[in-house]
Each structure stands twice: as structure tokens, then as C-alpha cells.
Amino acid sequence: MKRLNQVKIAVFLGAVFLAAVAMGEHAGVLLQEGIYAEEAEGDLDKAIEIYTEITEQHQDNERIAARATYQLGMCYLKKGQQDEAAEYFRQVVSKYASQKVLVEKAREQLEKIAPTREVTFMSAEPLKFEPAPWVDGEVMEVRLKRPAGGEYGTIIYSAQSNTLDDNNTWQIISHMYVSENSISQYTFVEAEAESFAPIYGQTTNWMGDFVADYNDGNVKLTVSTEETKTTRDFPVRPIAYDNEQAIYLIRRMPLAEGYEGSFPIFTVQGGTLVECRIEVLGVEQITVEAGTFRCYRTELSILHGGTQTLQHTLWFSADEHKYLVKYDVGGTATMELAKIWQKDKDRLLTFENEEPHFSVTMPPEWRFYSYASAGPQFILQLIPPEVKAWSLLVWQKRGTDPNSASAMTIAKADCEKLKGFFENYIADETSWKEYKINGLEAAQYFATYQEKGSPLRKYTNPKEMIEYRTYIVDQSNVYWFVFRIEKDKFEQSETELDSIINSFRANAD
Predict the structure, then answer these.
(1) pTM of the model
(2) pLDDT tens-digit profile of 229-250?
(3) Which residues does 43 contact at the CB level (< 8 Å), separation at least 6?
(4) How far is CA 139 from CA 155, 199, 337, 369, in A?
């Protein structure tokens, strides 16, 4: 039985398996089947299987997913497995704050369960680190793929040093974007350079903001969602690593044929301690977009409460770099290395397209992902840190119809179409303007609208949003920037967004 939301050693797991959502009616039937199995038949294992299916496949129905999560906690409590039960009750509190009755019940159950115990892990072999195999500023771009083929997203990993205050640390950063449901996630972990012990960890995604402060055998976890903010301490002995540094942790191990090791991980999104066991099974040659690599084939087993919950296969290059070349998530999805490059953390980041030829420049901490849409459009997803905005640049051939006569006519026509797409989409009449961007005709406006959430998470109250659009045309092409951001954050981000827009250059023909 897979409990995919329970332990997230791979940063993208939550996104991969939530991309396809099912109908709420089916979820309701499943919930009744689970309750019947639990309460009428007394078949806890069958009930757990049903509730788990709901939590994995029906996150679009928050009420039912929350109830299934709570019932999972009750099932494990009845089985005498308090650690597992507490984990699900904590998920109810952190993920489903809008379900106030269930949250209160979950808190009551947590109060009855014994306080979190200090946890130690048995290692198959004492954990030993080698010097970091990556260079300062290394960037690994991996693509998310389906087993049958087809790319649907990216994760861009970065490693950079920090030597402020005579305290040498590594900062491990990831930007994720999944095109289905427009899922974004940002993670940041700062760890001591030599010991690689975590100091601070942050994960920000559609569920909320998860911040972990590591200090003296304790993790202080703060979870901020739309409705609530909670803080809780987790004692750990002697150490626990942040789950978002796990891939880099493995890269620092003395990988070789026959190597075995284990390490403790704190999952910031679940508030759970798990044990990860790694074994090098052999050496294989793997070909991916980035090239052909001789790799260590490794098996990663994840254990919770002594029970194995997940098993994945990873391939790391058998050279001095130990790149993550491929990651197979149990046959359900893969990550494959697409590109490796080095970046100066203080230098602006520029994307340059060949045909049509244009470029755009972003702040150093931003990333980008280029992909083709289903139609004649091509999309450059602009990925900011901390998921502070949804951003993209689109380009396509310019039409010959009247609505394509100028940048302003294109903007006006699109604005009318968007009124039927967004809730209460109202263009600010004072925001319309025509101007030049590096010699090219441009038009710009912003509109307010209400966002009710996505299939992955519905908001208790609609969010007041701003969509900021800029259209640029040359003789053959039209390009447009779209930024969507919470209304109360727009003013503080406008200058940064304008700097990206005004950096645009194209060879006008």
C-alpha cells in the first residue's frame, strides 16, 4: 500500500500524483465504503486501503479528503499504532484548516496521544560524508516524465555557498513547475558546509508555507496556511536532515558498488521522522537528455515506525560529480537529467530564444522552463522564488485579423475573452497604456479578479488577485507577459515585474 503523501523524500511527489483528480461523487461513495469497513465490518486494513485511495486521488474534494485523513488516524489508533495515527491527525490540522470540526477533533486526539518521543535511527553503516561533489553555483535541471513517455514539468536544483558571518554553509534550492494544474513549489535548505546538518528549511507550495528551524536536537516547525498558523517542536536525536536536502545528502556519501547506509529525514510537509536506507545495487549506463552516464544504480527504502512505506530507484553518475541522472518513483513517474550548468548567484539570469530571436532577463533567484502548448503557442514559464507569483511569457505568430492590428487591439480583445474565464475579472481603466519596449510597440493593463483555488486546494474565501499583462509586437510575432499575484502583494512586486518586462528584446523584422 502506497502512502504517497506521508513521506516526501522527492520534492515533486505531492505534485506528480495530484495532477489527475477524480469526481467528488465517486469520492463520497468510497468514503462510505471505508466507514462501513471500519465500523460495521471491523476490517481496519480494508478501511485504511480505501481511505488512502481517497487521500491520494481525491484531493479536489477537500471535505471528503479531510474526513478520510481523519479516519486513517482513527484506524491506526485502533490498531495501537499511535505514531502513525498522530501523523494523520497532524495532517488534518495543517492541510485542512477550513474543516474546523474535524480539525478540533484531530487536536483532541493529538492531546490524548503521548507527546512526541525522541527518535533515533539504526544505520546499516555509520553515515560518512565526502566533500561536496558539486561546484558553487551548480544547477541541475531534471524533467518530470510519465512512464509511457511525455514530459509534464521540471525541477531545477541549485547549490550555492554562503560565507556570511564566518559561517560556511550550503544553500540547496529547488524550483518546481508542473504544467498540469499549474503546480509550483519552492524549497530552500541551508546546511552547515562540513557536517551538512540543516539550519533552516522552507517549503512553499499550493498547500501553504512550511518552515523548519533546526537547533540542538530540536526541529521547530511552523506551518502557515490560508486559515491558520501553527508552531510545534519535534525533538530529534542525534540529528535529522531536511527532506529537501536528501538528494544532495546522498551525493556526499561514498557511493560504490555494495555500499549501504541510512540516514534520518524530517519531512517538513508531514512533520514526520522517517528513516531512509540506501543501497548501491550495481553500475549501469543511462542515457538521458543531458547525455550518457555511467551510473550507480541505488535503491532507496523509506521506513516509518520500522515499516517500509516506499521504495524508489535512483541513478547517480559514477564520477566525481555524482549527478542525479534518473529517479524512478516506483514505476509511476521519473525524473531525468536534462541540463547541468553553473550560475553566479549574483548575476541576472537571461533566457535567449533562437527562432524567433528574443531574450528576457530575470533576477538571479528566478528560474525558467520552456515548453510548447497544445496549440501554436510556445510558453516560457517564469518561476519565481517562494511561489510569489504565477508568471509566464507566451509567443506566437501574429494574425491578420482586425484584433491583431496593434498591441493594444490584441490586449483589448484578450481582456474581453478573459472576463468569461475569471471570476469578477475587471480591468483597471487607469492602467491601460501604450508605449515602447526597446523599440517595439507594447500595450499594458492590469485587472482584478477573484481566485477560488485549484483542483488541488480550494480556498475557504476567494483570494483577491491581480493579473498584470503586457503585449509586445513586431512585424511577425506577438509576445505577452502574464503575472498573477495576490492583490496585497502586487505593489511591492511591481518594480521587479516591470524590470523583467522591460528587459525584453527581439529582432524586429
Answers:
(1) 0.77
(2) 889 898 887 788 999 999 999 9
(3) 37
(4) 10, 22, 11, 13
- A 10 A CB-CB count for 69 gives 26
The predicted-structure confidence for 31-78, as pLDDT tens digits, reads as follows 888 887 887 778 899 999 999 988 888 777 788 888 999 999 999 988
Cβ-proximal residues to 34 (8 Å cutoff; 6+ apart), any chain: 47, 50, 51, 54, 68, 71
Q: Are residues 286 and 409 in the same domain?
A: no
Q: State how far the alpha carbon of 435 is from the alpha carbons of 362, 395, 408, in Å.
A: 21, 19, 10
Residue 229 burial (CB count, 10 A): 11
| Contact between residue 205 and residue 14 where contact means Cβ atoms under 8 Å apart | yes
Interatomic CA distance for residues 456 and 55, integer angstroms: 11
Can you say how many angstroms the Cα of residue 199 is from the centroid of all Cα atoms in its chain? 21
Q: Is residue 125 part of a domain?
A: no
One domain, residues 159 and 308: yes
- Specify the number of domains making up the chain: 3
Task: Say how far apart CA 138 and CA 159 lie, in whole Å.
Answer: 6
Rounded Cα distance, 263 and 314, in Å? 16
Q: Are residues 469 and 375 in the same domain?
A: yes
Q: Is residue 449 part of a domain?
A: yes
Give yes or no: residues 175 and 298 share one domain.
Answer: yes
